[in-house]
Amino acid sequence: MSIDSLTALVRTIADFPKPGIQFRDITTLLADGAGFRELVDHMARIVEPLDPDLVVGVEARGFILAAALAHALGKGFVPVRKAGKLPGRTVGIDYVLEYGADRLELHEGQVPRGARVLLVDDLIATGGTAQAAAQLLREQGANVLMAIFAIDLPDLGGRLALEADGVATAAIMAFAGH
What does this protein do (predicted)? Predict the structure, then answer.
């Protein structure tokens, strides 16, 4: 399946979550068995040479891709969650995003100091969430090898911002606009 075929499986929802936004919804791609497999296979080919210790997924759609990618690589999966969702002791980071402020957390000690990690999310727009997750992981002593996304919205500059912050990035698909 080609990248164009994968791109065709992504649904665009106009004016969500607010007027003027073109929401790129990967749930339609995830529901297509061949498309989902191909997306994960594309991602695995890119990151396999990095040989990460852990695959870290950002809530919520990042969990889906990160868990599938961790399985494909034979690695462990760690969730980075929104505040108040994890039952144990947590470490976290507050950050600003295009629609307000938020907080990301992970279980204290779940990412060992020196761990080589791969950061995964479904989409990168402005890069705020990915930058916060990368910073949280670095504060725990992790080495963030790369952040990989199913979709990049290059007009919003998130990948460039993340790379300027020292995190290598990759994306399987790109959509113009926002």
Answer: Catalyzes a salvage reaction resulting in the formation of AMP, that is energically less costly than de novo synthesis.
Number of domain units in the chain: 1
pTM of the model: 0.95
Among 61, 81, 105, 159, the one annotated catalytic: 61
User: CA 99: distance to chain centroid?
Assistant: 18
87 within domain boundaries:
yes
Which domain range does residue 140 map to? 41-174
61 is catalytic: yes
Peptide bond just before 19 cis, omega within 30 deg: no
Does 4 map to a domain? no
Indicate which residue of 98, 108, 139, 163 is catalytic: 98
Q: Is residue 104 part of a domain?
A: yes
**Cβ 118 vs Cβ 54: under 8 Å:** yes
In tens, the pLDDT along 110-130 reads 999 999 999 999 999 999 999
Q: What is the CATH number of the domain that holds 58?
A: 3.40.50.2020
Phi then psi for residue 121, to 5 deg, are -150, 165
